[in-house]
């Protein structure tokens, strides 16, 4: 009987001890005091600590946000300014999109050392950022600044953002990108720049982006791409350049993107003359998924796809200039080109004149296949004058612009090679005009030979 009572008392004691332990654990885990410290007009959730203050017409960042918050949502309010003292807490995720932010003071986020995602998108009045706006965000992985009305970006805006992987800058008012703007973003994999007003891509604009995987540049006004603009983008797999103003894209620029898999170049005014040959040659070797590349000029190739042009379409083109940063061409012509011009040189005329430079050849506008009048030049620099005949104008695969631009560079001393030669080109049955020229020495030799020949026929 005594043993039975002892067991019963021991069980009651254990039950009370377990209940007390459970209450202690509940107080430690739930932390009711911290949950009740949620800012006014906000809702807080524990595990992970989340503070949601969205769509409350707030005009500034609220005070009282728990210091160890992990997610703070302040989107769709009326916050106008972010200052260095705006954030007295730490968080990993901070959403501020859809506000009326006009200014972000330098050092604003310097206390957010563990911040990984910052969304400032859809703040159309945020047209300027100070250079040190993102100072201290060395763990930031994703930065959203789309639809902010940004016209320029300070050269040190992304300084030391070594962890950044996603950068959203689409649908702003950017006209140009400074050299080395992204040079510290060595881990960036996605760069969204579409929907801006960018006009050119310089040599060092993407320097440092050695891990970039996707580059979206469509819906801009890009006219020129430096042939070394993509030299650090060896890991790029997706490139969008459609809906721009590109007439030419250097082949060397594309050679630097050896891992490219998806390329979109449609909706550009592509010129498919000689300047397109480097890009055409790149397409012949590349194994990628590409959009169509429709030619708009010259007229005889309008509507054709650059990728499917034939080699003979570029037979009369000058060789590329390896020293040109823009991928342009010089007046160095192939043997075939020189032979063709030497055999088809038209009759001289004084109706039109064309000036040749030692480095570049200017092409003048044409109307109905005939060159228009150009200003006269000094007699000492007067170039050759030509008139385009009907037969020459009808030559296939050679536009009038290319035809006239290349005149004056022929070299009749260059002989044709291999299959470029016409039948019996080197035969004695087709002597050149120079071989029939009678010189004094030739006449003297004939006079000496005549008596010998006569004597031979007389006694034979």
UniProtKB/TrEMBL annotation:
Taxonomically, the superkingdom here is Eukaryota
Which InterPro entries does the record associate with it?
Answer: Cys-rich_flank_reg_C, Leu-rich_rpt, Leu-rich_rpt_typical-subtyp, LRR_dom_sf, LRR_TM_domain-containing, LRRNT
Keyword Signal in annotation: yes
Protein location:
Cell membrane; Cell projection; Membrane raft; Membrane
> Which terms are listed as keywords in the entry?
Cell membrane, Cell projection, Glycoprotein, Leucine-rich repeat, Lipoprotein, Membrane, Receptor, Repeat, Signal
Matches recorded under Gene3D superfamilies: Ribonuclease Inhibitor
SMART domains attached here?
LRR_TYP (SM00369), LRRCT (SM00082), LRRNT (SM00013)
The record's section on PANTHER family has: ANTIGEN BSP, PUTATIVE-RELATED, CHAOPTIN-RELATED
Q: What is this protein called?
A: Reticulon 4 receptor-like 2
Q: Whose protein is this, by species? A: Nothobranchius furzeri (Turquoise killifish)
């Amino acid at each position: 009987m005594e043993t039975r009572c002892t067991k019963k008392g021991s069980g009651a004691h254990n039950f009370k001890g377990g209940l007390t332990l459970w209450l202690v654990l509940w107080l430690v885990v739930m932390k009711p005091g911290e949950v009740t410290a949620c800012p006014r007009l906000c809702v807080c959730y524990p595990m992970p600590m989340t503070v949601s203050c969205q769509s409350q017409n707030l005009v500034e960042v609220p005070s009282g946000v728990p210091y160890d918050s992990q997610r703070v949502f302040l989107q769709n309010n009326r916050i106008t300014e972010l200052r260095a003292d705006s954030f007295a807490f730490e968080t990993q995720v901070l959403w501020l999109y859809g506000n009326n932010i006009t200014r972000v003071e330098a050092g604003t986020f310097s206390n957010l050392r563990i911040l990984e995602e910052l969304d400032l998108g859809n703040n159309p009045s945020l047209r300027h950022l100070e250079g040190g706006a993102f100072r201290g965000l060395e763990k930031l992985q994703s930065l959203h600044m789309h639809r902010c009305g940004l016209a320029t970006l300070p050269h040190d805006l992304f300084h030391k953002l070594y962890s950044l992987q996603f950068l959203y800058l689409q649908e702003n008012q950017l006209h140009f990108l400074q050299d080395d703007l992204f040079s510290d973003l060595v881990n960036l994999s996605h760069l969204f720049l579409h929907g801006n007003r960018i006009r050119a891509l310089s040599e060092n604009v993407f320097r440092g982006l050695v891990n970039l995987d996707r580059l979206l540049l469509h819906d801009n006004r890009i006219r020129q791409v430096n042939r070394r603009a993509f030299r650090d983008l060896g890991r790029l797999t997706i490139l969008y350049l459609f809906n721009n103003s590109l007439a030419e894209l250097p082949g060397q620029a594309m050679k630097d993107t050896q891992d490219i898999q998806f390329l979109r170049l449609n909706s550009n005014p592509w010129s498919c003359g000689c300047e397109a040959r480097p890009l055409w040659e790149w397409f012949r070797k590349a194994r990628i998924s590409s959009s169509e590349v429709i030619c708009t000029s010259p007229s005889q190739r309008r509507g054709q796809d650059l990728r499917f042009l034939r080699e003979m379409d570029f037979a009369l083109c000058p060789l590329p200039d390896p020293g040109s940063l823009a991928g342009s061409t010089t007046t160095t012509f192939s043997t075939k080109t020189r032979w063709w011009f030497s055999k088809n040189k038209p009759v001289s005329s004084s109706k039109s004149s064309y000036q040749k430079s030692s480095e570049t050849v200017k092409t003048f506008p044409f109307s109905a296949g005939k060159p228009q009048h150009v200003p006269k030049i000094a007699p000492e620099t007067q170039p050759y004058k030509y008139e385009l005949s009907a037969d020459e104008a009808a030559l296939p695969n050679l536009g009038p612009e290319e035809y006239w631009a290349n005149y004056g560079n022929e070299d009749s001393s260059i002989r044709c090679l291999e299959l470029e030669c016409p039948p019996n080109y080197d035969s004695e049955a087709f002597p050149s005009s120079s071989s029939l020229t009678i010189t004094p020495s030739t006449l003297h030799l004939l006079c000496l030979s005549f008596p010998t020949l006569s004597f031979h026929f007389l006694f034979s």
